[in-house]
């Protein structure tokens, strides 16, 4: 027997009953149960499959945290419960952002054509100084009156991402306008002398 074989501990052997291979097999045997458990709580087979996939990744990343004597299936259900909580937290954040965008859109009054013509052309030119994705968001949503959800579909991003992009684009444009025209531009560019 070589020195390497003598020094290998039984705990590190993948063939022992509680080793990594046996634990993985135990989880795979219960995959259908896990999927049903998730689907009942999130209401979507696809979402359940995504959560389960992420949970398996977490297991393989943190499998070493399993305490002696702890049942792997019970431990994995704990991972799944935490994943469900994370899923609903993320959905909650997305809903809050979409509600804020909807509320902002509902309170905005359509400007009349005369005011639009009065708007400083230099601000439109400032779009070219923004990141391309920010300039496109301002151009499509603000200037061409495309809805946030339609813009999201065009850009192949989520509506939440589109709303965040629009918010950041507005902030960036505001900063560029102040840098070019001065701090007194917060009231608008109706009497622009640029």
Question: Can you tell me about this structure?
Answer:
- The chain is an all-alpha fold.
- It has 2 domains: 14-93, Orthogonal Bundle (Rna Polymerase Sigma Factor, Chain: A); 109-183, Orthogonal Bundle (Arc Repressor Mutant, subunit A).
- The chain has 10 helices and no strands.
- Helix 4 crosses helix 5 (72-107) and helix 9 (148-155) crosses helix 10 (159-181).
Helix fraction by DSSP (H/I, runs of at least 4): over 70%
Low-confidence stretches: 1-18
Order of helices and strands: HHHHHHHHHH
Q: How large is the count of helical segments?
A: 10
**Principal-axes shape call:** elongated
Supply the number of structural domains.
2
Strand content bin: under 5%
CATH fold description of the largest domain: Rna Polymerase Sigma Factor, Chain: A
Q: Give the N-terminus to C-terminus distance in angstroms.
A: 86 Å
The rounded Rg comes to 27 Å
Mean pLDDT: 75
CATH superfamily of the largest domain: RNA polymerase sigma factor, region 2, helix turn helix motif
Keywords for this entry:
single chain, 194 residues, mainly alpha, Rna Polymerase Sigma Factor, Chain: A, Arc Repressor Mutant, subunit A, 2 domains, 10 helices, elongated
